[in-house]
Design a protein that fits this description.
This protein is α/β, with parallel strands linked by helices. Helix content is about 40%, strand content about 15%. The chain folds into three domains: about 5-215, Rossmann fold (3-Layer(aba) Sandwich), CATH 3.40.50; about 230-380, Rossmann fold; about 450-615, no CATH class. The strands form four sheets. It has a seven-stranded parallel β-sheet with strand order 3-4-2-5-6-1-7, with helices on both faces. It has a seven-stranded parallel β-sheet with strand order 10-11-9-12-13-8-14, sandwiched between helices. Strands 16-17-15-20 form a four-stranded antiparallel β-sheet, with helices on one face. α2 (about 40-50) packs parallel to α3 and α17 (about 410-420) crosses α18. The radius of gyration is 34 Å and the shape is elongated. The protein binds adenosine-5'-diphosphate and magnesium ion (MG).
């Protein structure tokens, strides 16, 4: 089911029930019920129902649909001197009882008597009640059909039938009973359909059983669209933020809104994620308007990847292409869950809703199923060993891809020697440690002061070394010093990329000021960057591109650095003095029919190093 469109704006409801011109008895009963003014649906529906027309109504749960049909029926349709004139069908016994109580309450002074009939109660007693002079039968489809078949409910004087919560009745599988009932009722009757949503099946039902129905379409219940997949991660005693970080790594969302239940959580969750290298920021009610707008703009423009927010702060976010909605805190209300997750899976795309839940949330998960039929699939966070394996494979893949096309003969010979050496494992380990440690530091410290499309290297949190570098590696100690200018070791070609870093923006600090002492990534001084408009989605690989560029531009292998392939483009380090010539040579070049459209990469532009306050107002 999908949410039906709301194609009529609700009328402004009248200030009082006087506008409906109720008879005195009904007017007084309304007053006794404590209703002071009609709701939208009550105001909109009264006229046509009182006039005996067929009406199909969509109006959300809690909007007062019961009185919307009960009032005109009691006031204008039912004659207390006659027998059963109104039949209301409800999906459950509880609802039948509720509707019956409402008829009794609003009809008491006029002398309109309802009778509830449903399965599980004595048939005889119900027969007695009908015979005793009920005017309105409110019942569940199965039992009503029983009475009709037995002849204990004579519908010959029936003026109106009302299908209340029609969408529920259909989704509970009552279609057959409903059709059988409707076929047994007088053809001259008035038929009303009330529903919180307007699925196709209801429209068909209206076509089939109603005469020239008037449609009253007010705002519908939000129904969770089929385009969303729902998942749960159980979080017991573990640290919730760490679990969130692991979930984000596992799910690797393109961009997510992370919902917190409280305002205080938003900031602490965002900060904790930032410290783990994620590109996030938060929105909360306490932020000033200008800060809010800045964060929102950064999110919209994909300068930050994920947004942490509360329900209130997230109102008004009009970002439609969010791949994931993540519930850090599981919402207590099922409706809130539907609201939150409705931010993904829009505009023909699929969306994913992921929730952390703990023992205290089991009831809410159950309610979600009961109320909206949403049954999230439970997934397990991987064990530490699985996590290690995954990380190893990820690094292996990153290294492999990163190393394509960079090996010269001299280095290759050395590599062979190391592999064959007795201490080979230790030496490779040492190199790897340097390599990944460097990448982590760069990702954490350099952040997104360069607010462009370069990747952040995200290494699994648990693998980020917290100890200062070992004594035999003095350069590491230097790099590890917080916010010291990056050493020349942080060369552009030495950075591995993990799967979660593809084309994703760097960490950006929208709240805080930029650090004037911090330079963007240092590149080898004589290397510049070339950007070409083909990437992974075009099937481009580092080696292929390097070969193409070498062939077209006739430059030496050592003049090309390690190419970074992104989804839609690639960054090629090129010896600075050759860049213009290479761009000219590649002007018309294509890769898999895709033009390379070469241009200077950002790191080649002197303007790249931003003035200290360029991303602040
Ligand atoms: P729906 O069927 O649309 O879910 P209900 O008919 O069950 O809504 O009404 C929801 C609640 O609103 C009920 O508790 C009802 O008593 C109350 N209600 C209905 N009409 C009014 C009104 N005009 N003013 C105040 N409360 C109302
Ligand atoms: Mg209702």
């Amino acid at each position: 089911m999908t949410t039906a469109p709301t194609n009529s704006t609700p009328p402004t409801p009248p200030l009082s029930f006087d506008a409906l011109k109720l008879s005195l008895a009904v007017r007084r009963a309304v007053q006794d019920a404590g209703y002071t003014r009609p709701t939208d649906v009550q105001a909109a529906v009264f006229g046509p129902v009182a006039a005996g027309k067929d009406v199909v109504v969509q109006s959300k749960t809690g909007s007062g649909k019961t009185a919307a049909f009960a009032l005109p029926l009691i006031d204008r349709i039912v004659d207390p001197a006659r027998g059963v004139q109104v039949l209301v069908l409800c999906p459950t016994r509880e609802l039948a009882l509720q509707v019956s109580v409402e008829f009794a309450r609003l009809g008491k002074l006029k002398g309109v008597v309802p009778c509830a009939i449903y399965g599980g109660a004595s048939l005889e007693k119900q027969v007695d009640e009908i015979r005793a002079g009920a005017h309105v039968i409110v019942g569940t489809p199965g039992r009503v059909l029983d009475h009709l078949k037995r002849g204990t409910f004579d519908p010959s004087e029936l003026k109106t039938v009302c299908l209340d919560e029609a969408d529920e009745m259909l989704s509970m599988g009552f279609a057959e009973e409903l059709n059988a009932i409707l076929e047994r009722l007088p053809r001259t009757r008035q038929t009303l359909l009330f529903s919180a949503t307007m699925p196709e099946a209801i429209r068909r039902m209206a076509n089939r059983h109603q005469k020239d129905p008037e449609a009253v379409l007010l705002s519908a219940d939000q129904i969770s669209p089929d385009s969303i997949d729902h998942f749960l991660y159980f979080v017991g005693s573990q640290d919730r933020v760490s679990s969130l970080a692991r979930v984000l790594e596992l799910e690797s969302p393109d961009r997510a809104i992370v919902f917190c239940n409280t305002r205080d959580e938003t900031q602490s969750v965002a900060t904790a994620l930032q410290q783990r290298g994620f590109s996030v920021d938060y929105l909360s009610g306490e932020l000033e308007q200008s800060a809010r707008e800045r964060v929102l703009a950064a999110f919209r423009e994909r300068k930050i990847q994920h947004l942490v927010a509360t329900d209130v702060a997230a109102r008004g976010i009009d970002v439609t292409d969010v791949s994931h909605v993540v519930n850090f805190g599981f919402p207590a209300e099922a409706e809130t869950y539907v609201h939150r997750t409705g931010r993904t899976g829009r505009a023909g795309r699929r969306g994913i809703a992921v929730s952390l839940f703990g023992p205290a949330d089991v009831g809410s998960v159950y309610m979600l199923r009961l109320t909206y039929g949403i049954r999230p699939i439970e997934r397990a966070l991987p064990s530490a060993a699985e996590e290690r394996t995954r990380r190893e494979l990820e690094r292996l893949a990153a290294l492999r891809e990163e190393s394509i096309g960079v090996l010269d003969a001299e280095t290759a010979a050395l590599a062979r020697r190391i592999v064959a050496h007795d201490d080979g494992e230790r030496m490779i380990g040492y190199l790897l440690k340097k390599f990944f440690y460097q990448a982590t530091q760069d990702a954490l410290e350099l952040g997104a002061r360069v607010a462009d499309e370069r990747p952040v290297v995200v290494v699994a949190p648990s693998s980020i070394p917290t100890q200062p570098a070992p004594p035999e590696a003095p350069e590491e100690a230097e790099v590890a010093a917080p916010k010291s200018a990056p050493s020349a070791e942080g060369g552009a070609g030495r950075r591995p990329r993990s799967r979660s870093a593809q084309d994703k923006p760097r960490r950006i600090d929208v709240h805080g000021g930029a650090d004037p002492g911090l330079e963007p990534e240092t590149i080898e001084s004589d290397m510049g960057e070339l950007r070409v408009a083909v990437g992974r989605r075009d099937g481009a690989r580092g080696g292929d591109l390097a070969r193409l560029i070498r062939d077209k531009a006739g430059i030496a292998p050592r003049d090309i650095g390690s190419i970074k392939i992104y989804d839609r483009f690639a960054i090629v380090p090129i010896r600075a003095e050759s860049i213009d010539a290479v761009i000219a040579a590649l002007e018309d070049a294509t890769f898999n029919d895709q033009p390379l459209s070469p241009e200077r990469g950002k790191l080649s532009e002197p303007s790249l190093v931003p003035p200290a306050s360029s991303d602040e107002e």
